[in-house]
Write a structure and sequence with these properties.
It is built from 10 helices and 11 strands. The protein has about 350 residues and is an alpha/beta fold. About 50% of the residues are buried. Bound molecules: pyridoxal-5'-phosphate.
């Protein structure tokens, strides 16, 4: 691991606890802090014979272990503020996993029953996590129509009941969450190393991350490049419609998400699922046990570095860790294929960067 890249925080910087709304202040059952900052990882690699560093937000440090906690908290806060979510009201969402886990946890903490519509081909860990927080899980099979139909089923369910639909794919509060939190962190944490992001790249699920971080970084510097990434086997963004199966759970659903505006972004980067798995497995060997989309994002970041300038500061996100994928191909040993980018990557180690930390990790 590299040298410590941290500093201690002053007492005024220390996180404070906040409740979400008036009726919740009395409960304060949930240790949700407004300061949601998590570490930035500086991942050192040898790529095609040259030492490079890629910066990645460590999103498994969030409450339920994924980047979706940021979006879900922001949507719930906004809905309380607008009066569209009432105490005790049921929350219903269609999701491929992480969002469902986030809403299931927050719903339990805040006294909202939760119903999650999820494709039945998602990992068993995702399904069981949703159930473990006490949410109702409705599994939707491919013969019932796939993920797009899961969204339709959630909306149909909402017509008959008094429920709150977060609508992560079309709710602009999803983008706002990343513009308000992830973006500023990706700006401020590299600044501690006297760096500023030249580019950001992220796999697209709803598009909230790439849109929100991109907008924030470009509000500071209009020249920042912002690249969406997608699975090579399912080039939904490049072609406009889904046309293949892929294994990078959490990104690339059946359609181009309504909140994603490709015209605001740089060209799409495509990474194969097998390559993403190989990269995620390699990261685990230095102690970074990340999910498949994190392997995809690291490779996409290296591609961007190659395209721009190898000294460019390129940031991405590690959306979650590997624990939701232990029943998937992520843990299966596969021979490296000649076309894999991972064959040219040696992970040398990593260090953590915090805006403020009381204890040093390294
Ligand atoms: C594992 C994983 N990676 C990446 C993403 C993409 O994030 P976004 O929905 O903000 O595009 C998701 C979204 O669910 C995810 O679950």
């Amino acid at each position: 691991m590299g040298p410590s890249r941290q500093r201690r925080c002053s007492s005024s910087e220390r996180p404070r606890r906040h409740a979400l709304g008036p009726h919740l202040e009395a409960q304060d059952r949930h240790a949700l802090a407004d300061d949601r900052e998590n570490p930035l990882l500086a991942v050192d690699v040898n790529f095609r014979g040259r030492k490079l560093t890629v910066y990645a937000k460590c999103e498994h440090a969030n409450l339920t272990g994924s980047i979706k906690d940021r979006m879900e908290l922001h949507i719930v806060k906004s809905a309380y503020a607008q009066g569209t979510l009432q105490p005790g009201q049921r929350i219903v969402e269609a999701t491929t996993g992480n969002t469902g886990i986030s809403f299931a946890a927050l719903g339990s903490a805040l006294g909202h029953p939760v119903t999650i519509f999820m494709p039945d081909w998602m990992s068993e860990e995702r399904k069981n996590l949703v159930r473990s927080y006490g949410a109702d899980l409705v599994l939707v099979s491919k013969t019932q129509g796939g993920f797009r139909d899961a969204i339709g089923m959630a909306e149909a369910f909402a017509q008959n009941e008094n429920v709150f639909l977060p609508k992560q794919f079309s709710n602009h509060a999803n983008i706002d969450a990343h513009q308000a939190t992830t973006g500023p962190e990706i700006s401020q944490q590299p600044a501690l190393l006297d760096l500023s992001a030249d580019a950001f790249v992220a796999g697209v699920g709803t598009g909230g991350t790439v849109m929100g971080v991109g907008r924030y970084l470009r509000s500071e510097n209009a020249n920042v490049r912002v690249y969406p990434a997608e699975p090579l086997e399912s080039p939904t963004l490049s072609t406009g419609s889904r046309n293949g199966e892929h294994c990078i759970q959490g990104i690339s659903d059946d359609f181009v998400p309504p909140i994603l505006n490709l015209l605001e972004l740089d060209p799409v980067t495509a990474i194969s699922g097998a390559d993403a798995i190989a990269m995620a497995r390699r990261l685990a060997r230095v102690g970074l046990a990340v999910g498949i989309s994190s392997g995809c994002n690291l490779l996409a970041a290296l591609r961007v570095k190659e395209e721009l300038d190898r000294d460019a500061t390129v940031a991405t996100v590690f959306a979650n860790d590997n624990k939701k994928y232990l029943s998937t191909d992520l843990v299966r040993e596969e021979p490296a294929r000649p076309e894999h980018l991972t064959r040219h990557v040696e992970v040398l180690g990593f260090s953590t960067v915090w805006r403020c930390s009381i204890e040093s990790w390294s």
